[in-house]
Prior knowledge:
The protein is an alpha/beta fold. The chain has one domain: 3-Layer(aba) Sandwich (Ribose 5-phosphate Isomerase B, Chain: A). Helices cover 49% and strands 16% of the residues. The chain has six helices and five strands. It has a five-stranded parallel beta sheet with strand order 2-1-3-5-4, sandwiched between helices. β1, α1 and β2 form a beta-alpha-beta unit. α1 crosses α5, α2 (43-54) packs across α3 (71-77) and α4 runs parallel beside α5 (115-127). The N and C termini lie far apart (34 Å). The model has no long low-confidence stretch (mean pLDDT 95).
Amino acid sequence: MTIYIGADHRGFELKEHLKAILENDAYEVVDVGTDSATNGDDYPQFAAAVAEQVVKDPTTRRGIAICGSGFGVDIVANKFAGIRAALAMSPDHISQGRHDDDVNVLALAADFIAPEDAEKIMKVFLVTSSARDERYLRREEEIREIEVRSKLGA
């Protein structure tokens, strides 16, 4: 599995912390930026870079996007058809998101979460399988239909 990770300046330190753990755990990691904690960049470009890569092959790729609140990267990633991003605040929270909704991009709030807690959330995100029950598959299809309708109305 390839992990695409990106953050703005507010999420830079957390990104670097999580990237080191991923690499130590032998994941293939692609860092899409930023490369410093210096103010001056904006989260949309990094969240988009993560989502653009994950959507190319959501079965073998996952993404982690980080900004101060987590909301911005979550909003941007969810603009991409086929991306199911979620802002998670606990391991149980992301476990449910992976299981029920096949979340493929984890959004994290660097200003509100300790690195150790983010690490736990990330690890659950990476090992939890999605349920393939009929009700979950039906809901995923409903989401795809909404994505198509929203593009037609744009």
